[in-house]
Amino acid sequence: MYMDSNNLTGEAIIKLIDRYKIRQVPRFEKLQKIFIGKHDILNRTMDAGKPNNKIILDYPSYITNIMTGYFMGKPVTYTTDNVEDHDYLLLIKNILDRNNEDKENVELSKEISIKGESYELLYIDENKNICFTQIPAEQLFIYYEPNFNKKIDFAIRFYNVTDILSEEETLKIELYTSNSIKYYTKISDTELQFNNEITHYFGEIPIIHFVNNKEKLGDWEKIISLINDLEERLSDNANELEAFRNAYIVATGLGLIEPEDFEKFKQVGAMALPDKDDKVEFLTKNINDDFSEHHIERIIHLIHKMAMIPDLSDKNFSGSVSGIAIQFKLYCMEQIAAIKEQNFNEGLNRRLRLITNMLNFKELTQYDSRKITAIFVRNIPANLTELAEMAYKLKGIVSDETLISQFPFVTDVQAEIEKLDFDAEKEIKRELKKDSYVPAMGYEYSMLSEERGDNNG
């Protein structure tokens, strides 16, 4: 049964939260634990007395950090094609800067890499500033209208508040609709206490849903089994080495050997055998090192292949590599980043729209967020000589805005274009002033005399 925000009872809200806690929250919590290094290998047990090494490989963190740095390591910039929208763009940039948008985008990108999705909440602070902040996926869910518009019908945020004295936890709930926010406290398994309702003026539900991909999967979620297998193989190898160091000694033909004889043997590292047929050796298991090493290398290769993340320790990344060569090596990762960009840009457009809605309400303006464009630039080592040659060859074919955005040291494309225009205007004025200059007669005569070598003295 479809349920819209108008007929949501307290009991219905509790049921929706409980269902979300059962179906989604455990997955998010598991992925977060894996990301911070709490892997399944830590739960492995062995028989008493046997080695039980538990080697953790931080591949999830490695993949997330590499992909997040590549995708969002360089801040998103914003531009507009319309000169008349310049003041509007400055307003937007001021709001984004006040909210430390660069860091916010990195944190959002990081969480969608881990969990496949994340949320952002827009609000007005006590100083009447437009603000936005990330909300963990474990604390918020949204319901869309049952059509193809992808319009959010309502959103529910829930979180525990702990009393510092009694340490008792209370569940706080916020219900977001297109025009208001209702605040509740859970007082029983089926009952909520209504606390307050405020009206907001964002024009839409002030929640943004950022997703990693259509399936809402994290960047390494599908290769967890490979990571677990690699950790088990390396831990087993460590166990074998430790068992070899602690191997039993088998003495053949020596009869009963006293413990002090073994202690003396360990101290001097040698033992005299009375008879040529006597034998002393370690009881060890034959290990096929080549097979084990090959299996480990194959798993490592599969991890990078399936995650589409290059192995940056590979010798192919060393030395002087051209920009084109780097792009080919990062081709697979770029395909993932392209999907991320499409989805992330959708979230940024919604953020701009919500901010603009509030600006129009507060300032009685009619700004249009569609006139602002977000520009993404990948964070890769750049060959500036190649970029300069490319920019020179594409001048007049590609817009200056696009060309300038390719240079890694340019953090604000629009500002750079304005500086170029200002420099060009200064140069024109200088040339005009130079062309209109007429020297005084005496100065001109003096210069001519010097050129002829005249001497009046």
From TrEMBL:
It comes from the Bacteria. InterPro entries: Portal_protein_SPP1_Gp6-like, Portal_SPP1-type. Pfam families: SPP1_portal (PF05133). This is Phage portal protein. It comes from Clostridium botulinum.
